[in-house]
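Readers of this paper often ask what the protein records in our data store actually look like. An entry from our holdings is shown next, in its original layout:
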Amino acid sequence: MNEVDQVEKDIWAGDLLDRKDEGLHLQRFIENTFKLENGSNSPSSFVLNINSGWGQGKTWFLTRLADQLRQNHAVVYFDAWRNDFTKDALLSFVSIICDELSRKFSTRKRVKSKVEKVKTVFSVVTKSAIPIATAVLAKQLLGQQVDDLDLSDAQKEAFTDAADQLANVVSQSAVDAFVTQKNALEEFSSAISSLVDEIGKSQDLYLPICIMVDELDRCRPTYAIELLESVKHLFAIRGIFFIVATDTKQLSHSIKAVYGEGFDSISYLKRFFYAEFNLSRPDGMKLAESLFQGAVFVSRLYVSNSIRKNYGFDEIFTYFCDFFDLNVRDREQIFSILKTFVFSCEKPVDFIFIMLLICFKKCNSEKYERCKILRDVNPLDAYIGSLSGERRSAELKLEYQRIDDYGGRYPLEDTKTKLSDVIFFYLRLFSNKGISGSHTAFLRESHYVYQKEIRERLLSISTTYNDLESYFLLMDQAGRVSINS
């Protein structure tokens, strides 16, 4: 393995979602786009949108892509959400860019001087914006105060005249500031261009400079809009390539909160982006395989032999997570909760039932709490019944034995049954009274081997937990423990 391959291997270590190929693909796209489209008729800057839903591993991917690009390019990583506390999106953005480039080129005096020039010019931009805002604010405040004060008509008229004179002075100041700001913005663009040109002279790094923007969809809508507008207009400079990771659907909803429900936020966003790349849907099975690899706690999980014959713990885990339509982050959290739950138990627990409860709590905590308070599974039963037909049609292959009207038994065979039917079986089994009495009468009519195996297992009270009370109590206890991994 050569040095380059080793570096790539280290960068993408822990890649549970097979994102490396997508990262290398985007690296080629970014570099080739800049080389081939860097002509006079090409866009002055490039903005690539990496789109993926919440909890699908965007941040993990973007940080690794940044490390991958750092092998050949100057890279700036900007976490928009962490800087959302600032009132001025552009101020925090420019500050991070300058700080990271200063550190990157700490030994390059000419680059550092160009960075300092950008900072100096930008300070003029921000200062010149203050009088413009002050003019509007002064007129509003002074006008409002006249009405609020207990004054005679003559006093109010005199106060209003004074307010108008002051507002005129401030307004003239704002006009002067606008001209200053306009000139400062042009100088700012020139300073950025000069910085890009200087970095382009580097012997070991190549243009474009790659600026990564993460977590934009989690920001205040006004902050996100201001940042996008800044990228579009102030950084329209050749030699810079922006990579913006978003849950575009969520971001479009946030923008509507500012411009109104009827606003075409999708088209609005598209005008900012040169191209869009949709991260592939993660392979849940590969993720589960990685999570369960070397997991010793599975020895404390009970699964019917007839089910285990066809399915491993990682496969059952994936079936349930797919059934409840859970994202990557949810799956990792559920695995952690499962591990904590098992470590909290003195006896083995039923894997399928505890997965059912954990997934249900993750998807609908309100209905889960109702189940817990009522000590009944009816709210969960209703929730499962309300799911879409596609999710409810997921199937498992299980052992089945037909019995004729005379009690004759036919050879065992594998047949498909819906996962939702398995869930409904568990819901009837784990009723508010456990498995005693009439609640297990229906089992005698069952032909699926796993159902008989589970009934026999649960009737042996000493070997496993067999009632809702125990599971809810253990869920509460496990929920107060967090495992860092």
Q: What stands out?
A: Residues 3-278 form one domain.
